[in-house]
């Protein structure tokens, strides 16, 4: 178990799928993990549903963390926000960037030692305090992505298009793979604090294999 300088468990340092390199596409198998989830639709910059989801995920995630520290003596760093994104036309991610057509699920990783009952107690605590507008839409659920391709994008979110195009149209078919499942992003940078050109985002795409062999390209 990885423990940081603060004595807190660093979940994302224990799991290989939370590591990625800029300019490198890697094929890997992502293990099943449990997440807090809230669904929604629309442009994340303007959709009220997105802001409500963020305003709900974080309070529950931090309530879980404090309960784990207080009741179990097991403190940890709250994992970064993540999102699943999809559209009927995948070009809305690479070419047109028409965010109004995006459907999404916001995620927050739940440590394996916490149970669904722990999540429900955290939900009740947050509900008692008010101010979590999407609490009725929040659930805890396992996600098993299996075989995936991922890379690290550094820079503004709106500059992801060329990286995704290279992943979807060049690397994945070139490896004898095909897209399946839902585009996944892991936000290692905080847009409230980091400059846009320094934001770090893991871009992940589940795939299915047509040929045998796995390798990384630089």
Summarize the structure.
With 218 residues, the chain is of the alpha+beta class. It has a single domain, classed as Regulatory factor, effector binding domain (Multidrug-efflux Transporter 1 Regulator Bmrr, Chain A). It has five helices and nine strands.
Written account of the structure:
With 218 residues, the chain is an alpha+beta fold. The protein has one domain (11-209): Regulatory factor, effector binding domain (Multidrug-efflux Transporter 1 Regulator Bmrr, Chain A, Alpha-Beta Barrel). 28% of the residues lie in helices and 27% in strands. The protein has helices at 11-14, 48-72, 91-94, 116-129, 161-174; strands at residues 26-30, 33-41, 82-86, 103-109, 139-143, 146-154, 177-179, 183-187, 200-209. α2 (48-72) packs across α4. It is globular, with a radius of gyration of 18 Å.
Query: How many strand units?
Result: 9
Q: If you average the pLDDT, what whole number results?
A: 90
Output the helix-strand order.
Answer: HEEHEHEHEEHEEE
Q: Name the CATH superfamily assignment.
A: Regulatory factor, effector binding domain
The oligomeric state of the chains shown is: single chain
Highlighted features:
Multidrug-efflux Transporter 1 Regulator Bmrr, Chain A, GyrI-like small molecule binding domain-containing protein, GyrI-like, Reg_factor_effector_dom_sf, 5 helices, 218 residues
Q: What is the topological layout?
A:
Elements (H helix, E strand, L loop, with lengths): L10 H4 L11 E5 L2 E9 L6 H25 L9 E5 L4 H4 L8 E7 L6 H14 L9 E5 L2 E9 L6 H14 L2 E3 L3 E5 L12 E10 L9
Antiparallel strand pairs: 1-6, 2-4, 2-5, 3-4, 3-8, 6-9, 7-9, 8-9
Helix pairs in contact: 2-4
Protein name: GyrI-like small molecule binding domain-containing protein
Pfam families: GyrI-like
């Amino acid at each position: 178990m990885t423990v940081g300088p603060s004595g807190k468990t660093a979940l994302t340092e224990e799991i290989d799928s939370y590591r990625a390199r800029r300019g490198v596409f890697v094929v890997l198998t992502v293990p099943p993990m449990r997440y807090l989830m809230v669904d929604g639709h629309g442009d994340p910059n303007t959709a009220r549903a997105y802001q409500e989801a963020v305003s709900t995920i974080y309070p529950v995630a931090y309530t879980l963390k404090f309960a784990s520290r207080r009741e179990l003596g097991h403190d940890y760093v709250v994992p970064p926000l993540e999102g699943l994104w999809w559209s009927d036309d995948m070009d809305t991610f690479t070419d047109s960037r028409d965010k109004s057509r995006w459907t999404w699920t916001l995620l927050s990783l739940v440590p394996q030692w916490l149970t669904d009952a722990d999540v429900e107690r955290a939900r009740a605590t947050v509900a008692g305090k008010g101010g979590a507008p999407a609490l009725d839409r929040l659930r805890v659920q396992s996600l098993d992505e299996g075989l995936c391709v991922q890379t690290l994008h550094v820079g503004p979110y709106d500059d992801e298009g060329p990286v995704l195009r290279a992943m979807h149209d060049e690397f994945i078919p070139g490896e004898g793979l095909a897209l399946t499942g839902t585009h996944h992003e892991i936000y290692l940078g905080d847009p409230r604090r980091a400059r846009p050109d320094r934001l770090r985002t893991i871009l992940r795409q589940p795939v299915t294999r047509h040929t045998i062999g796995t390798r990384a390209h630089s």
